[in-house]
Amino acid sequence: MDQHRIMIIAAVVITVLVFAALVWLFMRKRRSRQLRERFGPEYDRVVRSEGDVRRGEGVLEWRAKRRENINIRSLSPSARSDFANRWTNIQSQFVDDPKGTVSRADGLVNEVMQARGYPMGNFEQRAADISVDHPIVVENYRAAHDIALRHSRGQASTEDLRKAMVYYRSLFDELLSDTSVAQRKEA
Questions:
Q1: CA-CA 20 to 30 A from 51: which of 12, 36, 120, 158?
Q2: What does the pLDDT read at residue 1?
């Protein structure tokens, strides 16, 4: 009888452990799916750069938690209009001054980010903060920044500068629109 009872207890313990492992696997897959949906291509970039799915997902979760503590504000209609007019003015100067235009575009994007409430630390932190709300265009922001850095070393062509303007414009438009990916999914 004692041996029979031990077998039953062992079977129950094994069943509970298997069930717990299945729940853990399900939760982990669900977490991965949610992060992949929220961060889009940024998910793959971070996981690749971290070299490990768990570390990459930890980085993305840390970003999301950090972002929760940042008060992102909407722009007033007048501020939005002012920024849009300034962008149009900057963009119209590209043919005559492509190098200066890219620098001014970068500065204007930073101004809009600051006006919206994003912390203005180093570039990597700004890109990480932006990636939570704008994961699709953050890669454009990185590409534009890279071109601007190459430009400062004299290594960017006019075509590269044109691409930088296109990249900056995509982020600029997202920042002006006041809608993040999460807000668009809710609509």
A1: 120
A2: 60
Query: Of 134, 115, 136, 135, nearest to 72 (Cα)?
Result: 115
The two tokens of residue 180 are 């993040």
The 10s digit of each residue's pLDDT in 14-40 is 888 888 888 888 888 888 898 998 898
**Which residue is associated with the tokens 């999460």?**
182
Domain boundaries, the chain: 2-68, 77-186
* pTM for the predicted model, two decimal places: 0.78
Using one digit for the tens of pLDDT, what is the confidence trace for 49-101?
Answer: 999 999 999 999 999 999 999 999 999 999 999 999 999 999 999 999 998 99
Nearest to 52 by CA among 27, 23, 32, 30: 32
Q: Is 163 exposed, middle or buried (0-12, 13-18, 19+ CB in 10 A)?
A: middle
Alpha carbon distance 85, 162 (integer Å): 19
